[in-house]
């Protein structure tokens, strides 16, 4: 007679593939999938460390983005200055005392007759009281 457990219709089973209640026969500990909880404090410490590293990297990345943004703004500002004729002190202001004196001399009124014309055509009252800041004048 043939042994029914060795029939050719049943699939061959290798001992490594047999799993009972979610565990293989070689698995001595049925709680193996929960063993990470044994080192939960170490796991949390590593997770916190990784989180701190991630936050530090994110902060550095944000600072780099800000620096790049500021650099682009300065570059755009310089390009805009080149496009338009802006006042640039290093270029437009005189550099020597002689140049400053020349500009000052150009501002001085040269003849006294034009000064008298200014006084004659003036709308100011020569008899007005002297203005003193903070003092109220009453019209009497």
TrEMBL record:
One of its GO terms (cellular component) is cytoplasm. It is found in: Cytoplasm. InterPro entries: PAIP2-like, PAM2_motif. Pfam families: PAM2. GO terms for molecular function: mRNA regulatory element binding translation repressor activity. The keyword Cytoplasm applies. Keywords: Cytoplasm, Translation regulation, Ubl conjugation. One of its GO terms (biological process) is negative regulation of translational initiation. Acts as a repressor in the regulation of translation initiation of poly(A)-containing mRNAs. Its inhibitory activity on translation is mediated via its action on PABPC1. Displaces the interaction of PABPC1 with poly(A) RNA and competes with PAIP1 for binding to PABPC1. Its association with PABPC1 results in disruption of the cytoplasmic poly(A) RNP structure organization. Belongs to the PAIP2 family. PANTHER family: POLYADENYLATE-BINDING PROTEIN-INTERACTING PROTEIN 2 (PTHR13154). This is Polyadenylate-binding protein-interacting protein 2. It comes from Illadopsis cleaveri.
């Amino acid at each position: 007679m043939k042994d029914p457990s060795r029939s050719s219709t049943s699939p061959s089973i290798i001992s490594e593939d047999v799993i009972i209640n979610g565990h293989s026969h070689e698995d001595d500990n049925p709680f193996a999938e929960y063993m990470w909880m044994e080192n939960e404090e170490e796991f949390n410490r590593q997770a916190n460390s990784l989180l701190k590293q991630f936050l530090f990297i994110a902060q550095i990345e944000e600072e780099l983005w800000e620096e790049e943004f500021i650099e682009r703004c300065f570059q755009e500002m310089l390009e805009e200055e080149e496009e338009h004729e802006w006042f640039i002190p290093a270029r437009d202001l005189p550099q020597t005392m002689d140049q400053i004196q020349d500009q000052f001399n150009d501002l001085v009124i040269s003849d006294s007759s034009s000064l008298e014309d200014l006084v004659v055509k003036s709308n100011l009252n020569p008899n007005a009281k002297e203005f003193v800041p903070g003092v109220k004048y009453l019209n009497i």
